[in-house]
């Protein structure tokens, strides 16, 4: 009966030795594997404040204090009041609203170059007149309406 107790104690001794060596292996792997910092056990300087710079074995340095942001902070200070601008104060029709987006000078340039292109591409025996400003504005209006209604590529 004593032999059985001795065998059991021998097994425990061998188990303890094995587990101790596993623990030692794990500790050596941890210290060799990574350069992590144990944040729970930070060493304090003489003035009892946490260290701000940490360095690893590989020479990389980390700071526990974030660098100041280079982005300008936004503020809610607005210099303009809400509402229509000087350009849109006098809008009373669809045409006035359209002119806020496309200036009259641009429409005149479109008219001039459209008529030049038509003249260049017309056959010598064909007779055709230049398009007028009203026709151009009507065409642009129809294009906008077709886009608004989604009819630009649909067939009826």
UniProtKB/TrEMBL annotation:
<dbReference type="InterPro" id="IPR029526">
    <property type="entry name" value="PGBD"/>
</dbReference>
<feature type="compositionally biased region" description="Polar residues">
    <location>
        <begin position="50"/>
        <end position="66"/>
    </location>
</feature>
<feature type="compositionally biased region" description="Acidic residues">
    <location>
        <begin position="1"/>
        <end position="15"/>
    </location>
</feature>
<feature type="region of interest" description="Disordered">
    <location>
        <begin position="1"/>
        <end position="87"/>
    </location>
</feature>
<dbReference type="Pfam" id="PF13843">
    <property type="entry name" value="DDE_Tnp_1_7"/>
</dbReference>
<protein>
    <recommendedName>
        <fullName>PiggyBac transposable element-derived protein domain-containing protein</fullName>
    </recommendedName>
</protein>
<feature type="compositionally biased region" description="Acidic residues">
    <location>
        <begin position="30"/>
        <end position="39"/>
    </location>
</feature>
<feature type="domain" description="PiggyBac transposable element-derived protein">
    <location>
        <begin position="96"/>
        <end position="150"/>
    </location>
</feature>
<feature type="compositionally biased region" description="Polar residues">
    <location>
        <begin position="17"/>
        <end position="29"/>
    </location>
</feature>
<feature type="compositionally biased region" description="Basic and acidic residues">
    <location>
        <begin position="40"/>
        <end position="49"/>
    </location>
</feature>
């Amino acid at each position: 009966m004593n032999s059985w107790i001795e065998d059991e104690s021998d097994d425990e001794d061998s188990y303890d030795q094995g587990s101790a060596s596993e623990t030692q292996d794990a500790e050596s792997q941890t210290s060799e594997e990574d350069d992590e910092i144990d944040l729970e056990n930070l060493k304090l300087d003489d003035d009892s404040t946490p260290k701000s710079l940490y360095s690893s074995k590989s020479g990389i340095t980390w700071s526990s204090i974030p660098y100041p942001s280079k982005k300008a902070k936004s503020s809610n200070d607005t210099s303009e009041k809400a509402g229509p601008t000087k350009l849109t104060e006098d809008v009373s029709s669809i045409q006035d609203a359209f002119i806020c987006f496309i200036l009259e000078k641009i429409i005149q340039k479109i008219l001039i170059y459209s008529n030049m292109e038509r003249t260049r591409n017309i056959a010598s025996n064909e007779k055709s007149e230049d398009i007028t400003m009203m026709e151009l504005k009507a065409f642009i209006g129809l294009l906008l309406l077709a886009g608004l209604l989604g009819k630009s590529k649909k067939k009826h």
